[in-house]
């Protein structure tokens, strides 16, 4: 098992993204982190105890970490680009145009 795919690295990635998704929550009291740590400790001797394929537990952890990373990226993009409908002036400014000045008769 390489260092990049070690259970500790996977747990760190998962806890990083859980912390990013819920910055106000204490990561040590998070139910997901406690469950992952308990499962990892249960398979401390070997991760093949109940897993069918070799390193399946690490693979599932990496999959979950990628999912959390995608959720964090989606939230960041949604915050930037899903602000609702823009005014005509804002839409023109996004593409580098300016509207003509209004003339009062």
TrEMBL record:
GO terms for cellular component: mitochondrion. This is Protein FMC1 homolog. Belongs to the FMC1 family. InterPro entries: FMC1_homologue (IPR037667). It comes from the Eukaryota. CDD domains: Complex1_LYR_FMC1. The gene is 107365917.
């Amino acid at each position: 098992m390489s260092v990049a795919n070690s259970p500790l690295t996977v747990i760190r990635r998962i806890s990083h993204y859980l912390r990013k998704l819920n910055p106000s929550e204490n990561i040590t009291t998070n139910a997901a982190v406690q469950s992952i740590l308990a499962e990892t400790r249960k398979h401390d001797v070997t991760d093949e105890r109940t897993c069918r394929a070799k390193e399946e537990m690490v693979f599932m952890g990496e999959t979950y970490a990628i999912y959390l990373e995608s959720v964090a990226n989606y939230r960041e993009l949604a915050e930037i680009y899903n602000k609702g409908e823009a005014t005509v002036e804002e839409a023109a400014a996004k593409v580098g145009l300016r509207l003509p000045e209004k003339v009062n008769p």
